[in-house]
Amino acid sequence: MTTMFSDLPKDLVEDILSRVPITYLGAMRSTCKRWNTLTKERILWKTEGRHPFMGFMMMQYKLCSLRFDLHGTFNKIELVDTFIKEIGNNLLNQVKVSKVFHCDGLLLCVTKEDNARLVVWNPYLGQTRWIQPLNAYHRADSYAIGYDNNRKHKILRFLNYYDRSVGQLILEYEIYDLSSNSWRVLDITTPTLEIEFYQGCASLKGDTYFFTKEKIVYDEAGDNYNPEPHDCLLCFDFKSESFGQLLPLPFVHYLYDVGGLSSVGDEKLAALSQPKRSSKVEIWVTTMIDPNAVSWNPFLKLDLGLFPHFNYLGGSFFIDEEKKVAVVIDFHTYGARIYEGAACIIGENMKYVRRKRLGLGEARSHIQGAVNFSEFACCSSYVPSLAQIN
Q1: CATH number of the domain bearing residue 99
Q2: Domain count of the chain?
Q3: Residue of higher predicted confidence among 82 and 284
Q4: CA dist 244 to 150, 208, 297, 331, Å?
Q5: How high is the pLDDT of residue 376?
Q6: Any idea where the F-box domain is (predicted)?
Q7: What is the pLDDT of residues 211-250, one digit of tens each?
Q8: Which of 51, 169, 170, 221 is 20 to 30 A from 361 via CA?
Q9: Residues 124, 385: contact at Cβ < 8 Å?
């Protein structure tokens, strides 16, 4: 008697599905109604009891998934199950993606067009939803995604550019509510702030945190006589639909310094900084954070002078507080081109440092030569969810 997939025990089915890469679950669902129901009722994403790290990145405007796991203890920690693969979503493979943001298991993808388009994607459920603009999108737009107290997901759109045709600064904020499928104009302004919506932003508890600084003011001759302001931390609170207070970072960070933010579980934020022309990298983790207050603890410090092949470009980094290590994605570059990616495991006081190639070739079989850094970006740790967007 032949055993059908539908006849397999539930525990075995769940174990099989938990080992399937998250971006390929859609194809698995179509093979069996029972499997489809299981994956939509609960999260089945684990690896032998461990919790793998997952993120997304773009290479030459193609969206790829990054996944790895940390195995071992003390100074024997190793990266396992490491891969980068181009996503198997036919809709997203048909467009060029220039930016990606994430919150609560949802990815907000921005297409590379003069009049950009937005699409929200839940990789776990395989759902996509195109977002129509209130009037029109602009290539200078910046975005963030979050949710309110009722877990209703929203998109923040920020437009800030100088329109030479009318001779004035255009500053607009709009918010989109996925539950009502509608945009609203927000009556808020940040005329004195430069907000880094992409390079230095991360989602935490439904809100989005950014690197930001006071705008540099120039005189009529274009000269600036004031010292460059350093970065602060700023939160957009999706519950109140407003910005919080300027919050201190645990280090001094300027325009051309390299840095980034990463969420640590559901309650903490990590911040990384490498000053320009310095080999020193430091990572701090919050002990308390909300839109109007923050406190920090040092996590680790690293001297890149000891590791000449390490080249952090402001991409993803991940924190494992239990193992007391950070995993930083770095790249071997020549000029503006990336020839090799690697994941570096860094321990406290540099007790252990491991470096494992990520194998960019696996995700770019259609790309010849190196990857242009201007067409490359990372997004930090992703956690799947059952949030419905259709």
Answers
A1: 2.120.10.80
A2: 2
A3: 284
A4: 20, 11, 21, 34
A5: 46
A6: 2-48
A7: 998 877 665 555 655 667 788 999 999 999 999 999 999 9
A8: 51
A9: yes
